[in-house]
What we know:
Elements: E1 2-7, H1 9-16, E2 21-24, H2 28-40, E3 44-50, H3 51-56, H4 58-66, E4 72-76, H5 87-95
Parallel strand pairs: 1-2, 1-3, 3-4
Amino acid sequence: MEYYVIGDEDTVLGFSLVGLSGSAVSSESEARSAWEKVLENRNYGIIIITEGAADLIRSTVDRYLFSENFPLVVEIPSSGQKSKRDLRTLVNEAIGVGL
């Protein structure tokens, strides 16, 4: 099972440095296209998406967050956005595995 990242350029670049695939998006059409690409490949079992990218396709993301079993969706703060919890904690809580 592989991870896929959808978000701003900085976030996707950062995750690519540790070997994760991803798509940098800045519009609704780009976000929707990236989302559909992930769903076509069943090897991607975990989608990491920034809040900014998720807001572009909020209804779709919420459907997967709250009612679908596959893939697992982890929403993280966008680049430069402050969060009360660090990224490691957010991912660990979502997948139930310590990283």
